Amino acid sequence: MQAPPEDSLVRLRCAAGNLLVAQSQVHGIAPALEADVGDEGIGGVDLGAIRWPLFVLDENLQPAPHRAFRFCVCLRDADGTSFALACDAFAVVAADELQLRPLPDCMRTQNTPFEASALIADEAALRLDLTALSRHLERLG
User: Fold this and answer.
1) What pTM does this model have?
2) CA-based, 20 to 30 A from 51: which of 16, 38, 41, 84?
């Protein structure tokens, strides 16, 4: 099997919209049926020998305890922090299929986990900084 290009991104479709992460940061995908989610929208999913903390988030990246989802995408940030996000769909996007643009000034805040924006087939997407997102998730629980 040929390795994916380093610049490939994965589009995660979830309540927060289309989120983009580097393909190298995706470590596996588990079906939602294998997840345990508590009343706070935080739980876990087993993938391989690892228990991944799972976060079910709403459009504001806050816990959404009763939101339905199809997949748990297991991610690892540059610092080695591992967690999973609840998603409805995912797809690999080649770098030539999109053009990342800097965030508008109104979206640049100190604690935002978003790095850039893009259009993919006329749909907006936001590129995630997983390290910033993991810090946000730590504050949630």
Assistant:
1) 0.89
2) 16
